[in-house]
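Tutorial handout. Part one gives the primary structure; part two gives the three-dimensional structure as tokens.
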Amino acid sequence: MPLEPLRFAVLGAVRVFRGDAELELGGPQERAFLALLLVGAGRPVAVSEIVDVLWGAAPPRSAVNVVRRHVGSLRRLLEPGLAARAEGRWLVRDAGGYRLVTDGDSLDLLRFRALCEEGRRIVDRSPAQALELLTEALSLWRGPLAVGIPAQARAHLAFDAADRELPAAVRQAADAALRAGRPDVVLADLRQAAARHPLDEPLQAGLLLALAAVGHRSEALAAYEAVRARLAEELGIDPGAVLRDARDTVLHGARETAVGSSSGESSGAVSDGAGADGSLADPDPDPDPDLAPAPAHAPAPGPPSPSALPPPAQLPHGIEVFTGRDVELDEAFALSGADGSGPGTVVISAIGGMAGVGKTTLAVHWAHRVADRFPDGQLYVNLRGFDPSGAVLDPGEAVRGFLGALGVPPERVPHGVDAQAALYRSVLAGRRVLVVLDNARDVEQVRPLLPGSPGCLTIVTSRDELAGLVAAHGAHSLVLSPFDAVQARAFLVRRLGAERVAAESRAADEISELCAGLPLALACVAARAAGHPHFPLAAVAAELREAHGSLDAFVRSDASVDVGTVFSWSSRAVSAAAARLFRLLALHPGPDLSLPAAAALAGLPVRRVRPLLAELTGLHLVTEHGPGRYTFHDLLRAHAGELVHERHTEADRAAALNRLHHHYLHTVHAADRLLAPNADPLPPPPAPEGVHPEPLADDDRALAWLTAEHAVLLAVVETAAASGQPVQERLACQLAWSLEPFFDRRGHWHDGLAVQRTALDAARRLADPALEARGLRGLARVEGRLGLHSRSVPRLERALELFTELGDDTGRAHTHRSLGWECDQRGDLPGALRHNRIALGLFRTLGDRAAQASVLNSVGWYHAQLGEYRRALTHCFEALTMLQELGDRYGQAATWDSIAYAHHHLGRHPHALLGYRNALALLRDQGVPYVEADILVRVGDTHLATGDHDGARTAWQQALVLLRSLNHPDAERVEALLNARDGHAGAV
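Part two.
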């Protein structure tokens, strides 16, 4: 008699039923083993992952044998009478692990996922029906996931990933309920989910809207305040647009709108507020949390607002002649949803394989082919996991880069990688974004960069198989092998033409064999052959066969082919000068380099290096991935690194690096003088022969150059500081301190924190009190920007002691200015004025006019803040005269702002408006939108004081446009000004 069908449950207690009878599952460890198989939902679970779940970091020696016993026991439980060692139909061996055969009829987790997907699919056309499906899905959860298993096992990432599906489903259900006019249906689920996930902003927004819709407006507002306080305390951020929109809807009594609006407008109809896919888990695809839809009561718009930042499109250029990976592409398209629907869950596809096998090429080609399925953008980063220079990209730096691309200003990024990753996941929540993580070193580098909700596809390339991603995140592994003979022949045909390859078929096959089937090596050889169309392929093969190179780390284990011979042969095909440059490029520590940087390495004029780079790019030894920006594959970098150590003395290498470091130091120093003429950087030592710093005509050019070299400069600071050579360590300090105005102007305070820590450590190793004092002050300034005042103030006080002991009045004066800013931050305006007056006295004694002018404006500003407006004007006009003589446009703008502020409070409103206009005219070509917005707010205040309500409205709306473009929290304050005038003046 056949056994009745089995049913498995993991959404709540771990249970198995045969018909109506529940099976006895054994002890906690047996339940944990079954639960892991169930959350795997049909995927193979590796034995190593099972051991990790059952025993954690200290498994017994017998762990694998115990797992096998658990396998046998579970098979016999599911299929009584099964012969010993028989596999049976339910628990099968697969891909080096075990897979439980389940489907939507037998496993509640798969049924839950199917109902959610169907609800998401139909919510646009039938929200009521979608609500039924989603509430049925939620009813399948009978408690927390996998109740009854040990806490150590439950903490494993595999359970955490499945557990996150519940709040996503609750968000979808809440959205459907609001559209259907039935918020009461999901209120209980929302309350429970919101309590378990207090930092999930879309979820909390759904709760606010549902509470308001059922008449609990006060409770909704109290819930918002609780979430706002918790976000500030735990992540150091303000609520995003989704949560603030919900708060505004509650405050102003607007009719219910779905959280996922993508239109940027409110509507009187509930259904019109829905997002493009109708999902509450799909908030406004605009990545800028302050670009919130206007509430229903908002005034008619004034000047047109610029659109939000466009969706990021960071994919590198694909290769037009891509060929040879049809099978892998078919599998990749299947993973990314070939029907165009996109993935229903987060899918991570790890492309593993040896160096040069084409992982990045396949990933980028695949990404371009499916990019249209991800309308919210494509993110790309080279993690440099196996860079021969050892400059592995820190995951925090990568997360911050992604946040910037998604529209989050640097000043809104919280401190710490965990908080930054949480913000990144929140920004991506409900969006469809394609993320390419290229050249990953390990799972820990990748994990902070993974989206946390369905709708995104993450493609990861690595030489490592990244089994942890497969185990903990349900990734699909796609392992590449070198080309076989057929694929290699097709590759050559695509680049050299079918006729030429067919005419010398044997030579083409020999070339393929000598290249070991590696696409990178084949590309180098094909480029050489294509550049000489009259060379017989047999001659090319002979040259290659006779070449000798070395790249021992990349020799194939199953063949005697040394891939280095291909690269050695290619590098010998260029001129001696180009070959020398190729070798020296390996010394560059950054992800890419410019033409002038290459010239510094070579010690040659730029005009002589340009054609040498053209030679190298022509043979695919170097890639020009952007105008004037060069890089090369890490395999080629490794080969160049071997050659530079073989053929150049240590002194030659040190001289090249010294030229490179001086190139960057002298150019950064010039940029520093343009951006902050009142600062006190240490003058750099004379540049060695062969160094030609890049000419920077003005501060605009300086900012553009610093932005392009941002990642490179971080790497140069780290490399110079780690050199162990006092001269280079001192250079690292100078470089870090000269970068301070750039990081401060652009808000890159997290990067500034890293380089200032490096500089302070180097200064202390050098045991130079003068350098240590500068290092303390530099680190304190950026810590202050990040709100770490308990650290910054003691550092500044210690720096002041050191500068005083050294008799360095310039250092004392600048440190007093920094202490004044700290006083300002804690509301001590008299203290701020006192420190700035001390600084002013020191600068006057020193005769430093640029610094005098800047601090005169600060003294004037603090007098104005204290109500001493006439004294403020005296100082500010003196500052303005000096700044005009010095040509400091930024300082002039700041001073005109101070002058106008004082005039406003003296009742001289026409004078104030003139001062503000002068400030804005100076600022608008300098790329400082926050300062411009801040002044526009004060312009509005002055217009309002004269009774010019239209002028006030126009100025505030212009400020709001800028603040929204920056995702700055001050946007709320300006919105409140506009709304208040709307209520009182009726026309503003």
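Part three, for discussion. The radius of gyration is 32 Å. Residues 254-308, 338-350, 548-562, 984-988 have pLDDT under 50 and may be disordered.
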